[in-house]
Amino acid sequence: MTHWTVFHILMQTLRWTLPLLVTVHALVHKRDTASCTGWIGICWIAPLLGTVLYLMFGINRVRRRAQKMVNRHLWEGRDPLAQYRQTVDGDLAPLSKMLGRLTERPLMRGNSITCLHDGDNAYPVMLEAIGQARTSVILCSYIFRDDEVGQRFAEALVAAKRRGVEVRVLVDGIGSGYFRCGIERRLRREGVACARFMHSVWPWRMPFINLRNHRKILVVDGTIGFMGGLNIGEENMLRLRTKLPVADTHFRLQGPVVHQLAVAFAWDWSFTTGEELEGERYLPEPSPVGDVPMRIVTSGPDMDLEKIEYGMLQAFALARRHIWVMTPYFLPDDRISTELVLAALRGVVIDIVVPKSSNHALIDHARDANLRPFLDAGCRVWMADPPFNHSKLMVVDDEWSFVGSANIDMRSLRLNFEINLEIYDAGVAKDLSTFMQTHRRNRMTHHDLDSLPFLIRMRNSAIRLLLPYL
């Protein structure tokens, strides 16, 4: 038997074995029928290439080994959060009940929240909190650049470590640099514990290359928390007038809800490093600081799959008067599109604010090709002027707000690890609605879509086919 014959037999074996294995795996693990059918088809058409692509981008579930962070010694078996549990009455009561059962987190009263727009306003407050830390600082950021702003945060974290504060920093393995992560090297060199989420160059870890930790979390001493859409980098400082400035919205939290924020970080840290964060350093006895009911909602391709999306769907279904949505990337799947369209058809006023131009041209092209059903239903779509606004905000009926890191696209809601905050407070809802209203510019109309050149429309429609992967 010649070498050519052996090679031919091997290739023929792979030609049938690889797509068969992918077919079995997809049928068992893929819930979305369109995605399942697409991957099976690609692998039978191009077995080798299709299998490699499936391993890298098609497997989106992970096993979370992390355990919930508990303060066993301090709490001695009792639940210190029980006294802060809140119930909701009225039209949004089903939403609160659903999210409570879905997330297994109670709605917490006794909180305060401060809205911070852009890095110009948020960074000084965050750095001040780190500078005053006494026991612990935990920080998670999708993008943590090794630039002027990143160095300021690194210096504050190193200073905290030197005065005896426990510091843990988690950055995404892709967002903060896949081949080189300067900020990780700087922090590790100074003795600060820093890890990269889902990062590996080894082939057997490649199935995780498509999964990203998009969360932004900062908790100081277990009592002051920050979360929202703000990464760490010079582009978020509008006064620096960088080439591509990014506006954003972040939130400062105090109260029992900070406990939920810290636990969310602890899950990710334990999964990445194997270290369990527990004790009074990270979870001190909570105390009320305000009167705003809140709850953390996480999602990711594990046991938290689609929980943020389910919260959005339920809120849209219960809306009776007005829905505000502000997102940098608006590429909703069929479920969210259907709920928004049905809400508009039953008379709910819907305002969708998106940037005229984002930092990803392909996403803008796909978005434009996807807007017609919303215009047909009567939704009002607004193209906000520069600078590019990266805020992710939602308000329903001037009562309920949903803010955080999640965009309205399939990547954010299915593949990324995201964190949002639901808020039941009319005052917060009013402030966010007013903010979104100031960006309500350049209303998109049917005429705008119809007047696009034919080749542009064809390009947009073709790019829209990539919607699940953008």
List keywords for this structure.
17 helices, two-stranded parallel sheet, secreted, 19 strands, 15-stranded mixed beta sheet, EC 2.7.8.-, 3 domains, Cardiolipin synthase, membrane, alpha/beta, Endonuclease, Chain A, 470 residues, globular, transmembrane, single chain
What does this entry look like structurally?
With 470 residues, this protein is an alpha/beta fold. The chain folds into 3 domains: 3-58; 72-89 and 104-295, Endonuclease, Chain A; 307-469, Endonuclease Chain A (Endonuclease, Chain A, 2-Layer Sandwich). Helix content is 41%, strand content 20%. It is built from 17 helices and 19 strands. It has helices at 3-29, 33-45, 47-58, 72-75, 93-103, 118-131, 148-162, 182-189, 257-273, 307-318, 334-345, 361-369, 372-377, 410-415, 426-437, 446-450, 454-464; strands spanning 108-117, 136-141, 166-172, 193-197, 217-220, 224-228, 246-247, 249-254, 292-299, 322-326, 330-331, 349-355, 380-384, 388-389, 393-396, 400-404, 408-409, 418-424, 443-444. The strands form 3 sheets. It has a 15-stranded mixed beta sheet, with helices on both faces. A two-stranded parallel sheet has the order 7-14. A hairpin with a 3-residue loop joins strand 15 (393-396) and strand 16. The protein is globular. Residues 64-76 have low confidence and may be disordered.
How is the secondary structure organized here?
Elements: H1 3-29, H2 33-45, H3 47-58, H4 72-75, H5 93-103, E1 108-117, H6 118-131, E2 136-141, H7 148-162, E3 166-172, H8 182-189, E4 193-197, E5 217-220, E6 224-228, E7 246-247, E8 249-254, H9 257-273, E9 292-299, H10 307-318, E10 322-326, E11 330-331, H11 334-345, E12 349-355, H12 361-369, H13 372-377, E13 380-384, E14 388-389, E15 393-396, E16 400-404, E17 408-409, H14 410-415, E18 418-424, H15 426-437, E19 443-444, H16 446-450, H17 454-464
Helix pairs in contact: 1-2, 1-3, 2-3, 5-10, 10-11, 12-17
Domain PLD phosphodiesterase: 209-236, 385-412
Subcellular location: Cell membrane; Secreted
Transmembrane segments: 39-59
